Amino acid sequence: MNKTVEDLANRYGVMAIGVEVPDLDNMIVVALARSQAPVRLHVDVGSRFPALISATGRCVAAFSGQPLKEIEKRFRLLRWHTAPTYDAWRKEVDQARRQGFSIDRGNYIAGVTIVAVPVLNGRGIISHTIAAVGLGSQLDRASSLALARDMGVAAREVSEQLAPQS
Q1: Region 95-117: what's the mean pLDDT?
Q2: Are 54 and 108 contacting, i.e. CB atoms less than 8 angstroms apart?
Q3: Is the pLDDT assigned to residue 117 strictly greater than 90?
Q4: Do the bridges between strand 112-120 and strand 48-50 make them parallel or antiparallel, or are there none, so unpaired?
Q5: Quick one: which H or E segment has residue 3?
Q6: Sheet of strand 15-20, all strands in order from the earlier edge strand to the far edge
Q7: Share above pLDDT 70 across residues of the chain, in percent, rounded to a whole number
Q8: Average pLDDT, the chain
Q9: Do the beta carbons of residue 15 and residue 140 sit within 8 Å?
Q10: Helix axes 2-12, 141-162, angle to 10 degrees
Q11: Cα first-last separation, the chain
Q12: pTM
């Protein structure tokens, strides 16, 4: 996954992150590539975040196969800069399921755009995600969508790499 996030970071000038999603409580950064941008956010490999936060969390909710009651219970504990309502968030989760990606524009962190795609196992359940983080002014709609498309291709490649060989 390291090469994948490095390619995305270099191509788009963002911080690209590979995340493992072991459960509905945590996501863990397992790969990381920083851009050469003069202003950057700081994350380390091993950092943990709530599994349902931001764009990544929408993908987790969309592709985890977990009961809605469990997802809602954990959603209500999240801390956002500008929290969406649960109903609005659920619509965004449904949209992430249909599109295969999610974009958070300043909900989690003011002024920061986060694009995330799921990495699915053979049963279509999320095991990892790839996320890209950039300043909101850097990731306008067109560049966010192009990034999401390239991240989707990368996620399918990572999924194949992680699949058990038969």
Answers
A1: 96
A2: yes
A3: yes
A4: unpaired
A5: helix 2-12
A6: 48-50, 26-33, 15-20, 126-135, 112-120, 102-105
A7: 96
A8: 93
A9: no
A10: 170
A11: 21
A12: 0.93
Question: Taking residues 80-96, what's their average pLDDT?
Answer: 97
Residue whose C-alpha is closest to residue 51's, from 99, 108, 105, 2:
108
Q: What is the pLDDT of residues 16-37, one digit of tens each?
A: 999 999 999 999 999 999 987 7
For residue 84, which of 60, 116, 52 has the smallest C-alpha distance?
52
The total number of residues written for the chain in this structure:
166
**Residues pairing with 126 in the sheet:** 120
Radius of gyration of the chain (CA): 15
Note the pLDDT tens digit of each residue in 35-56: 877 666 789 999 999 999 999 9
Beta strands in 24-109 (DSSP E): 26-33, 48-50, 102-105
For 100-112, b/e burial (b = at least 16 CB within 10 A) is bbbbbbebbbeeb
